[in-house]
């Protein structure tokens, strides 16, 4: 017979775990506002801070889920194979593209060595952006390119009920059929008015949303009162953020190289891309991906769908079987990619691409092509 003290001891981790799971759900909604979270949960601020520290200790950070549609940006996913002579410079080239032409992130695929490139491109420049990439292919940079465009995208919230915060592991039973349905997903948000200060704030928050405005002020050199006004009235008031996400992968933002730092050998990301699918086929696949706690990101277009799923490495066999079943009805129009985390980077919004005086995003295709053509010449000459 188990003694009463032993029973209390056995229950304690689960009680704490339940509280942290509730805390994460609240953070997904209101962000890292400790007093607000504590008030809404009816808990002491000290307890909430303790739970927050446990997340940080496990390598998790809190980041905003940016509403790109409100910023006037559309998602374009490109599957790119670099020409052999440029393979060794692929990642510096893509990093340059993040500064010059809206590339938001890239991942290298295994074993093919192609790159899945996500760009957030101004809606009005999407056609010219794709044309620019094709002209770079004509110039010899790429051996092949595939494009898919999307109307909306979102970061999936952490399904904290499936996570053991005490043990630092997921508890998901693959043998139990999950409820298959997409989460409530809205269409593209209406475009909002923004300015360069709003974008500077969003870029800073993308690194770590727990950073105080005083720290952002020192980094941006923007007057504190101006910064605070734009944060309250524009970023929050105009709902330029869709919500907040607990980055459970353990990927922190590295300001030294404007990229990411990964906790290796813990998770295996897999990207899936569907093209030329019907609305019902897309809804079925979305239902399957949304039934998992491992959905990280998804985007949807008229006849296309893209999702990034991040699986614990010990579940990779079950994950591959799940994806094979989920994609079976559309296997002739589906691609999936194993991601090499050592060759993956994410970038923040680039405010320098926004013309604050004209209040619009800029894109000079001729200028961008000229810069990259000069870069390719230097690479070919070895300089």
Radius of gyration: 22 Å
Structural class: alpha+beta
- The end-to-end distance, rounded to whole angstroms, is 77 Å
What general form does the structure show? globular
Largest sheet: 9 strands, antiparallel
From the 3D coordinates, which CATH architecture of the domain at 154-185 and 263-339 would you assign?
Answer: 2-Layer Sandwich
User: What is the average of the pLDDT values?
Assistant: 89
Query: According to CATH, what is the topology of the domain at 154-185 and 263-339?
Result: Alpha-Beta Plaits
SSE string, helices as H and strands as E: HHHEEHEEHEEEEHHHEEEEHEEHEEEH
Number of strands: 17
CATH C-level category of the domain at 154-185 and 263-339: Alpha Beta
Count helical runs.
11
| Order of adjacent strands in the largest pleated sheet | 5-2-4-3-15-12-14-13-6
**Beta fraction:** 25-35%
Taking pLDDT < 50 over at least 5 consecutive residues as the criterion, the unreliable ranges are 1-13, 252-265
- Fraction in helix: 25-40%
Overview of the structural elements:
The protein is α+β, with helices and mostly antiparallel strands and 383 residues long. Among the domains are: 14-57; 154-185 and 263-339, Alpha-Beta Plaits (2-Layer Sandwich). It has eleven helices and 17 strands. The protein has a nine-stranded antiparallel β-sheet, with helices on one face. The protein has a two-stranded antiparallel sheet with strand order 1-9.
